[in-house]
Amino acid sequence: MERFDTIVVGAGVSGLTAARLLARAGRRVVVLEARDRVGGRVWTERSDGVSTDLGASWIHGVDGSAVAAAADAFGMRAMEFTVGGYQADSRPIAYFGPDGRRLDGAATRAFAADLRAVDASLLGTIAESDPDASYRDVTERAIAEQGWDADRAQRVREFLEHRSEEQYGAWIGDLAAHGLDDDAIDGDEVVFPDGYDVLPTRLAGGLDVRLEHVVSRVEWSGDGVVVIAGDAGFAADTAIVTVPVGVLKSAGFQIEPPLPEPVAGALDRLEMNAFEKVFLSFPTKFWDDDVYAIRQQGPESRWWHSWYDLTALHGVPTLLTFAAGPAAEATRRWTDEQLVESVLAQLRRLYGERAIPPVRLHRTAWQDDPFARGSYAYMTVGSTTADHDELATPIAGVLHLAGEATWTDDPATVAAAMHSGHRAAERVLGRSVPISDTWAD
User: Fold this and answer.
1) Residue 87: is its pLDDT beyond 80?
2) Which of 36-40, 57-61, 103-107, 324-328 has the lowest mean pLDDT?
3) How many beta carbons lie within 10 A of that of residue 215, not counting itself?
């Protein structure tokens, strides 16, 4: 059995951040990764000169961002593409009403004002909500406070449903009232035309990363840890486990003894979402010029309500939409042909016969990925924001959990993953280290 100072389980951004900091501090570290690549849920596919980020795509706010600093240090080419937490406006968005006709400027501004009014009411409503309140509960109260007619209220209600799904891949009634509390964005958002996976690839440089090592068991005691991956065993003084919540909760990944409180309770109250990307590339661009997004309102928007124009990234006319929450679950077993037909039917409501079939479809399947079991974690009803940090509570001084779900400030992001890995490394070392050491030469 090989022995190390620290074993890191998972070669995503969190695990690689922790491993780099520990290795720089002189610790003997091994990273065990189930996949045949590093990056985890940062995954870029390259074909025909186009880089497609199937997992993480954005830095959600570059101001003061450690990820932005790392990307800059690694020379990653970035392009501004600000969508701002399912924002209502501030960037050109083409809204289409329930009748399929595009709203004029005045109607769009009025709708955005309604959304801002509800968001302002939500601040107090969420703060005063019961522990077991859902996001649906608090948004319904905030809408009722406005005194609008039924149609006006329904348009806002739909938007809030879509925001819950697009931000956390969960139906609004399943998301905790505080589920969007920490969804903060500071500064522009950027994407990477050459692929986000440059980040984990660079982070992995020089580390002892063992690919295709599927960890099935982590045993811990006051004396240290033993990690089992296939027929191999690894021992260490400490371990940092960075696998997603979906894997932590699966039968195929065992931690013995079982996780203690408050870690176990926090894990029970977090769940992996259903959230898939659908990329559609077309021979020509038929939609509006100079818009970031296309959105439709009304009953037809139940599944396909938002499309993002990615044409500027590579010069290929491309729209990105999301199958999120109930839509992701319902279309999970659909054929590509069924999916295209469904999405195209909605685009034709808005653009008529100009909406021609795509020449390329790419869809993700994170729900079926055994090493993710979803895209990222969300707070179920009864959860609080404290559950993120409590999930990372050190266990017996030898076992640490890290990853996007363990960071309270803007969870479900690459930034959360990086910061959680930094925190875990500091706890193992027993001292502070600058996060900038992660990307320093």
Assistant:
1) no
2) 57-61
3) 25
Please give the average per-residue pLDDT across 162-171, as a whole number.
93
Closest C-alpha among 410, 403, 45, 11 to residue 207? 11
Neighbours of 261 (CB within 10 A): 9
CA 4 to CA 27: how far, in whole Å? 8
Confidence (pTM): 0.95
Please give the Cα distance from 317 to 264 (Å, whole number).
46
Residue 385 token pair: 């924001």
Give the DSSP letter of residue 71. Answer: H
**Tokens (6 digits) for 74:** 């690694």
Residue among 176, 173, 174, 169 nearest 157 (CA): 173
Q: Which two tokens stand for residue 67?
A: 């990820």
Domains and CATH numbers, the chain: 2-42+195-271+380-438 (3.50.50.60)
Q: Where are the beta strands (DSSP E) in 164-301?
A: 190-191, 209-210, 215-221, 224-229, 232-241, 254-256, 270-272, 275-281, 293-296
